[in-house]
Known about the structure:
- This protein is of the alpha/beta class.
- The protein has helices at residues 13-24, 36-55, 61-69, 94-104, 123-128, 161-173, 189-205, 211-222, 228-235, 237-251, 260-267; strands spanning 5-9, 28-32, 71-74, 85-88, 113-116, 136-141, 150-155, 177-182, 280-281, 288-289.
Amino acid sequence: MAIQSVGVIGAGQMGNGIAHVFALAGFDVLMNDISQDALDKAVSLIDRNLERQVSREKITAQVKSDAMARISTTLKLSDLGRTDLVIEAATERETVKQAIFEDLVPHLKPETILTSNTSSISITRLASRTDRPEKFMGFHFMNPVPVMQLVELIRGIATDEATYKALHAVVEKLGKTSATAEDFPAFIVNRILMPMINEAVYTLYEGVGSVSSIDSAMKLGTNHPMGPLELADFIGLDTCLAIMNVLHDGLADTKYRPCPLLTKYVEAGWLGRKTGRGFYDYRGDTPVPTR
Ligand code: CAA
């Protein structure tokens, strides 16, 4: 089946980046969220990010306006039923995602492919709650979506070959590269990245280094574009903690236990850039380490 129209559920950080790259690649995009304000903010952020690409001469003004014209929004989840491919990018909580799929499924065309941008939740389990586990896959984009080259493709136990091939082709059309992962907790990227971030928090917790020394050590010592604590703030500390919990519960190994300091930051509501404070305080002109 040729995929032309794409429904994106959730207009947050990941949803707006996903809508951006699909519209740019020529797909018709229908974005859904429970908040009109979130949809309006996402559209203006996409406009700004596309403008940034125009100003850096990555795309022309005409390409930008064509992409913007392909994006529409709706508050009604059922409107996504007419699309060829649905990408769920809502909050990283299993009960929320399951409720969304339950509401959506009765409205779907039989051939629609269903996907989740989950960074760690079992694809097999999410798929089993829908009417189409064979047409269900994990479709995991990296943040910031317009910049990052990788998309992880995760097959559930029941996913069929046609669905896998269709998504593989979509990734190529986006101009990105896919890596295929089996459906085990946190897949590939987060299975490796999150324990590194968690270890950086332990390094801070145990007083081995300060926020600045840990981040400069990893940036300058291993050529990472961001230090692990800066990256944790960028991803969101609540997301990092949720993924560590999925690893800890799913693999039942104490090596994945979340650092108590990470839990403390999340309990304080210091979730990183999105709340103005995490391992750095972003409320002034330049980020200031909080430890
Ligand atoms: N939309 C469009 N373009 C964007 C953008 C956006 N949202 N954000 C950045 N860019 C572009 C900039 O325009 C710039 O383009 P040019 O190269 O043409 O100049 C380029 O990206 C670099 O941006 P900046 O100059 O503003 O900033 P930078 O050089 O400091 O890079 C960064 C910013 C790309 C975020 C870089 O720091 C980086 O790669 N960080 C690591 C990101 C990372 O690891 N992401 C994965 C997180 S894990 C994940 O997502 C999985 C999960 O489930 C948690």
